[in-house]
Amino acid sequence: xxxxxxxxxxxxxxxxxxxxxxxxxxxxxxxxxxxxxxxxxxxxxxxxxxxxxxxxxxxxxxxxxxxxxxxxxxxxxxxxxxxxxxxxxxxxxxxxxxxxxxxxxxxxxxxxxxxxxxxxxxxxxxxxxxxxxxxxxxxxxxxxxxxxxxxxxxxxxxxxxxxxxxxxxxxxxxxxxxxxxxxxxxxxxxxxxxxxxxxxxxxxxxxxxxxxxxxxxxxxxxxxxxxxxxxxxxxxxxxxxxxxxxxxxxxxxxxxxxxxxxxxxxxxxxxxxxxxxxxxxxxxxxxxxxxxxxxxxxxxxxxxxxxxxxxxxxxxxxxxxxxxxxxxxxxxxxxxxxxxxxxxxxxxxxxxxxxxxxxxxxxxxxxxxxxxxxxxxxxxxxxxxxxxxxxxxxxxxxxxxxxxxxxxxxxxxxxxxxxxxxxxxxxxxxxxxxxxxxxxxxxxxxxx
Length: 448
Known about the structure:
CATH architecture of the largest domain: 3-Layer(aba) Sandwich
CATH class of the largest domain: Alpha Beta
C-alpha cells in the first residue's frame, strides 16, 4: 500500500471517477478535478506526488501544463492521458518533463505500474533533497553560528562568491572557522555534488606535500611502492581547500601556480603531463603581503589565489556570538557525555565574554567540553571554567570588596584547586591547611 498523493485532471466525469476508484483501491490518496485552472489551485494548497492529466482540457493543453508544473514543482511527476495517440505530442511531453504519455483505454493496465514507478522516483527525489538539507546543516552556511555584524558580513561575502568559480582566500586568526567557511562555500556552489578535498600545508614536509597534491609514480622515492593519485585529481570537478597556504614551501609555489593557471601538473617521478579542473579555496593566518616582502611567498601566486578575499573576524570581535556558540557546544558535549546540563549561568557567560580568546572558536569549544566534564549540576557554572577565564569575572565582581578576607581566600583556594586539577589532598598541602579544613572551605564557598 502507498501513501502517495495523486491528482487526476480530466474533464470526462465517468473516466475520472473510474480512475479514482481504481487508484484509491491501490492505497493511494486521490484528488480529482476537471480543469487545469482548478488543478493548479490544488497544487498550490495540497502536497501532490503524481499528476494524471488529460491532454485536451477545456482551459488548456496538458502538454504545455507539464512545463508549468515542472518549473514550479520539480519533484512532481506527470503522466499524460490522451484519447488519441500523437507521436509529436508524446515527444514534446517527454521533452517538457512528463514521466510518460499513454493512450486512454488501450493503456489502462499500464496506469498502476506507472504510478508505482513514478511515486518511487518522487520518493527518491525527496530523500535526496532531505539528505542535501542535512548536508547543508552540517557543512553549509547553516552551520555557521552568530549574528554579530562582523560574521554576518563575512557570510554575505561568502554567499556571493560561492556561485562562481573564483578562487577565494580566507584570512584570519587560528581557530576562526576558515575550513567551516570553505565547506559552506563549496556546498553553496554548483560543485556541491563533486568532492571537497582539504590539505593542511603546515603539517607536512615539502616532499610529502608535493606527493599529496599531485600524486606520485611508483618508485619515485623510498616508500613509493605504487602509483598514487594526488588531491588535485581527487578533487576533479570539485573544490580543493589548501589550509595554511602561507606555509607552502617556496619551491612548490611555482608548481601550484602553473596548475592554477592551466590545470596541468606532473605526478612526482612522472614525465606525462596530466590535467584536471578544480576550484581553489585557500586559507591562512599569516600576513602574505609581508611574506612577499620577506621572499617567503610569491607575489604572482598571491594575486592568483587572492582574487576574492574574506577576512574572518576574531571571536573577541564577536562578543554577542560567544553566548550562542557556548550554548551550541554545551548541547553537543552534554549529549556526548550523557549529562543533563541545560544552561550556562550568567556569571559563566559574563566570564566567557570577557576572555580574550586567542584561540578563537576552537579554544571556546575546548573550554566548554572541559567544563561539561567537570560540571555536576544541571547548569554550567563559573567554577567549571578554567581559572584564567573564571578569574576575569571573579576579579571584576570583587573590585569593591577586594579587601575582604573571604573574597581573597575564596579566589586563592579556587586557584590552587585548579592548579592541582581538583586533587584536594595536594591542594591542602600547598595551602598548608588540614584536609578537613579545605573540605569545609570548599563547602562554605561552593567551590570544586
